[in-house]
Amino acid sequence: MARLSSVVLAALLSTIVTATDLAACGDAQYDPSKDTCFDNNFLCPIDGEVRELRCGDACYSLDQFSCSNTALVDNAVIGLDTLLDCGDKRFNSTDYVCHDGDFLCPFVCIDGLSRCLTGTFDRRATLRCADACYDPVKFSCIDDELHGLPPPNTNCLPLGGTFMGAPTCCPGLLAVADHCRDFCDFSPQLCSEVPG
Ligand SMILES: *[C@@H]1O[C@H](CO)[C@@H](O)[C@H](O)[C@H]1NC(C)=O
Q1: Which one of 94, 96, 107 would you pick to mutate in the ligand 1 pocket, going by the greatest count of ligand atoms within 8 A of its CB?
Q2: Closest by alpha carbon to 158, among 180, 175, 174?
C-alpha cells in the first residue's frame, strides 16, 4: 500500500509522465504504454498502434467496432446513413466516439494534418478526462486531471520537413520533391474535415 501511494504521489507531482512509469487505475497498477485506464477502474490494452476503447464492459478496436451507448456495433453493418446513440445525442461514428454511454469525443488527425484522409488509420479517438476530451498521444489523465506527455520519439519527418535521399515522412504525409507535404493539399476529395 505504501508503495502504491508513493507511485501515485510521484505521478501527481510530475507534470511530465514518461511512458515507462507505472500509474494507478483504481487498485491496479498499469503501464500506460500497454494499457489505457478508463473511468479510473477499467483497463483496455494497447496493441501496437491500436488503442482499444471501453464500451460498456468490453474493450474494442475502432477498426472493427463502434460503440452505441454502451453496446458494440460491428462496423460492417454501419452504413453511410447510420447514426449511433450516445445518451440523448446521435452521432456519426466517422467523426466521434461515445464514452461512458453519454459523452462524445471527436477524432483527431495524425500529427501535421489539418484534415484526415478518408479511412480509419490516419485518425485517433480522443479520450475522456472528467469533462474534457484529450489526445492520448499528447496527454495522460490522472485522477481526472490532464498531464502533458513528452513528444513521441519518432524518426519520421513532420509536415514541411525536408529530406535528402530516401524520404522518411511521418505516416499520412506525402513525399514531394524533398519535402513532406499534406496529402490533402493534393487530393482534397479523398480527405474529410474532422470536428474540433
Ligand atoms: C458520416 O460521415 C461520413 C464522412 O464524412 C459521411 O460520408 C456520412 O454520410 C456521414 N453519415 C451520416 C449519417 O451523416
Answers
A1: 94
A2: 180
* CA 53–ligand 1 middle distance (angstroms): 22
Q: Any idea where the domains of the chain sit in the sequence?
A: 16-149, 154-196
75 close to ligand 1 (CB < 6 Angstrom): no
Total residue count of the chain as it appears in this document: 196
Which of 68, 75, 80 to mutate for ligand 1's pocket (most ligand atoms within 8 Å of CB)?
A: 80
Straight-line distance from the first to the last Cα atom of the chain, in angstroms, rounded to the nearest whole number: 41
Rounded Cα gap, residues 107 and 123, in angstroms: 6
Question: What pLDDT, in 10s, does the model give residues 121-133?
Answer: 567 899 999 999 9
Give me 171's grid cell.
505516416
State what percent of residues in the chain have pLDDT above 70.
77
Amino acid at 140: S
Q: Which residues of the chain have pLDDT under 50?
A: 1-2, 4, 7-19, 196
Q: How many angstroms does the Cα of residue 108 sit away from the middle of ligand 1?
A: 16
pTM of the predicted model, to two decimals?
A: 0.72
